[in-house]
Amino acid sequence: MPQEITERVIKVMATILHRDAASITPESTFEELGLDSLDGIHVAFGLESEFDVDIPDEELPKLKSVADIVKGIQELLARKGAA
Amino acid sequence: MHRRVAVTGLGIISAIGNNVSSFWESLSQGRPGIREMELVDRSQFRFQMGAEVPNYDPLEWFEGRETELLDRFAQFALIATREAVGQAAIQWTPELRARTAIVTGTSAGGQKSADDGFYEFYYKRNKRVNPLSVPRIMANAGASQISMRYGITGPAWTVSTACSSSNHAIGQAFWMVRSGAADCAIAGGSEAVFHFGFLKTWEAMRVVSTDTCRPFSRDRKGLILGEGGAMLVLEPLESARARGATVLAELAGFGMSADAHHITQPSVEGAAAAMRCALADADSNGEEIGYINAHGTGTAANDPAETKAIRSVFGPHAERLAVSSTKSMHGHTLGAAGAIESVATILALRNGVLPPTANYTTPDPECDLDVVPNVARETRVSAALSNSFAFGGLNAVLVFRSVNG
């Protein structure tokens, strides 16, 4: 499951950022990828559609890497499943 | 020719007042007009609060038939103009009408009418949109309606530079009167933001506060959108005095800059450059400035950058001037912001009272200026700045001087 989520996250990021998916790894940080805050909200928008979740405004600034996103999406999906 | 320029009329409609006196009462009492939004279905939004003009009924201001042609933003432009022109008590002649300029600012123009029309078409599958859509939607509708209403035949146009729109508009009108290109000007801006599509685009930017608007406060969570309009009447100081008009303030300087940096992140250098240009245009070394009506949106990014920019322009004098964000009360009215905040700045100069930054709770070391927290302050200042910094990095700053005494 985390593996599948990671792959989907990377695919969304690659599409939105117009870069090769192979250049994004689970360990990549936003800094390494050169993302600014506007890229951040754009990626969040893509992830919300992909996973049918809502990423709260206050959570977004806490995300600094692909691993953070995967963890956050897992939590949101778990909360959704429990609801 | 280089004439001094007087402000002889002010008009406003906003969340905290439908005219200049009620607006000032709210400002001087630090009373915000930020409430739960009523013009849209709040359950569809992450944020719930807005600064709407409360209980607004167009039929209190216009004939029913007139409203058919007027988007809400154009109504606000006309309402503010009516008050400003009334206060200035201009004696219109055909010559003056031909020598009067109209410059309006708006960010979204009549997008509400576009939103309503496209909803009919895309969602309800109606085959047609309202035939008055184009004249309602066009961003210059405010300027055109003003010109028709008063028979003004001089230069008239509309500026759209997002949140700096009406400062750019007022500044250009000011330069026209100062240079002699016009003998009178009506300048300002208006905005109507509370419709579904437009609010959704702001929600997606994730800059709208889920709380209220707390500029310069450490716990600030973003901006609160507001609607309204404000207009200024400008004319040469000498002829205003000669005709016995009440001079409310002198508009003394205007400065512009572009960040050339980032489409949404502010730049300290860009903001500072606009303030420096405005001071230079007013022939001011900055020491006379006692108050700054800040751009002060209450976003994470703006407030520290604006603080740094003010420090960089004013050096040690930054410790001696007061800075407040009245957006904490009337909301961020985007293309109307510069005009509404010009009215606030002029009234502060005239009344010797500095409006506060409302909703302030906690100092932020990154925003360590004197921000006049929560309570207005009786202080007479001789000159003031009003800052506007737009998304897209386009900055516009005005300098006003007191004419008291």
What is the helix tally of chain A?
4
Percent helix range of chain B: 25-40%
Structural class of the helix and strand makeup of chain A?
Answer: mainly alpha
Mean pLDDT of chain B: 97
SS strand fraction of chain B: 15-25%
State the helical fraction of chain A: 55-70%
Sheet with most strands of chain A: none
Q: Let me know the number of strands of chain A.
A: 0
Query: Proportion of β residues of chain A?
Result: under 5%
The biggest beta sheet of chain B is recorded as: 10 strands, mixed
Total helical segments of chain B: 14
Shape of chain A: globular
- Give the overall pLDDT of chain A as a whole number: 92
Distance between the termini of chain A: 19 Å
Can you tell me the overall shape of chain B?
globular
Q: How many DSSP E strands of chain B?
A: 14
Distance between the termini of chain B: 26 Å
* Radius of gyration of chain A over all CA atoms, rounded: 12 Å
